[in-house]
């Protein structure tokens, strides 16, 4: 079964940057999309960004546009999320997901999930 492991979370001051990474340990299942979601305290899980493995086409949610950049390394089965100009509102557990769907913004578009990594932004 596919396994996703996130890393790179931590504590950062407002205006700072972080880079998250997610590595898929199982390549035989061949997911077509890798994505990042986040869940702030007391709120539902929301879409952040996604990337198609076939052509590295990126997709961004409104909260990520202009501040976050998603990229992938197919040889390493790894996806990255570079976050800039972080704000306290970005504080959340960030989850990596893998799937194959015609859409990319819904949790139901994905089959496999990592356990999440905590990002905390202080003011």
Write the layout of secondary structure elements.
Blueprint: E1 4-7, E2 10-13, E3 18-24, E4 33-39, E5 46-52, E6 58-60, E7 68-73, E8 78-83, E9 92-99, E10 112-113, E11 117-122
Parallel strand pairs: 2-11
Antiparallel strand pairs: 1-3, 3-8, 4-5, 4-9, 5-6, 7-8, 9-10, 9-11
Give a description of the structure.
The chain is mainly β and 123 residues long. The protein has strands spanning 4-7, 10-13, 18-24, 33-39, 46-52, 58-60, 68-73, 78-83, 92-99, 112-113, 117-122. Strands 2, 4, 5, 6, 9, 10 and 11 form a 7-stranded mixed sheet that branches. A 4-stranded antiparallel sheet has the order 1-3-8-7, with no helix packed on it.
Mean pLDDT across all amino acids: 92
- SS element count, helices: 0
**Could you give a short account of the major beta sheet?**
7 strands, mixed
Give the overall silhouette: globular
- The N- and C-terminal alpha carbons lie at a distance of 40 Å
Supply the helix-strand structural class. Answer: mainly beta
Features:
mainly beta; 7-stranded mixed β-sheet; 4-stranded antiparallel β-sheet; 11 strands
């Amino acid at each position: 079964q596919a396994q996703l492991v996130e890393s790179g979370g931590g504590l950062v001051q407002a205006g700072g940057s972080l880079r998250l990474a997610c590595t898929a340990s199982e390549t035989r299942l061949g997911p077509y999309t890798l994505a990042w979601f986040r869940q702030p305290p007391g709120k539902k899980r929301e879409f952040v960004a996604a990337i198609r493995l076939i052509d590295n086409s990126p997709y961004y949610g409104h909260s990520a546009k202009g501040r976050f950049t998603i990229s992938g390394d197919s040889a390493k089965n790894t996806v990255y999320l570079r976050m800039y100009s972080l704000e306290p509102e970005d504080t959340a557990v960030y989850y990596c997901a893998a799937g194959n769907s015609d859409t990319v913004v819904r949790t139901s578009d994905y089959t496999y999930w990592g356990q999440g990594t905590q990002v905390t932004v202080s003011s």
